[in-house]
Amino acid sequence: MAKMRLMEAVQAVAEPRRREILRLVWDTELSAGEIAEQFDVTFGAVSQHLKVLRDSGLVTLRQEGRKRYYRADRAAMGPLADYLQAMWAARLDTLADLAEQAERAAQEKGTT
């Protein structure tokens, strides 16, 4: 990924909703409508986020009739793909740790 394109990609993923959109389309292709259903903002707002992701080379677009389908373009991301995957894995690890702590606390509470 060229230096300028990489800077655009980093700026694009700096926005939390765009990171979440990327996570949604990381392993699967989703229509714009399916993506928009996951957010509490207008379809137009999600569409603008998708345009930024597409313009920065982070997602691919496939049009079928009137529907637009998006998928993360991990190959085009280069090292940014590894970073995002590691970030999401760390978040899942943190969530798992918190769940385990809550379960232990509940068990301790139940035994006293």
UniProtKB/TrEMBL annotation:
Where in the numbering of this chain does the HTH arsR-type domain appear?
Answer: 1-99
- Check the record and name the Gene3D superfamilies matching this protein: Winged helix-like DNA-binding domain superfamily/Winged helix DNA-binding domain
Which superkingdom heads the taxonomic lineage of this protein's source? Bacteria
MF term (GO), any: DNA binding
Q: Which CDD domains match?
A: HTH_ARSR
Q: What PROSITE patterns does UniProt report for this protein, alphabetically? A: HTH_ARSR_2 (PS50987)
Which UniProt keyword terms apply here? DNA-binding, Transcription, Transcription regulation
Please name the PANTHER family in this protein's record: TRANSCRIPTIONAL REGULATOR, ARSR FAMILY, TRANSCRIPTIONAL REPRESSOR SDPR
Return the NCBIfam families for the record: HTH_metalloreg
What is the protein named? ArsR family transcriptional regulator
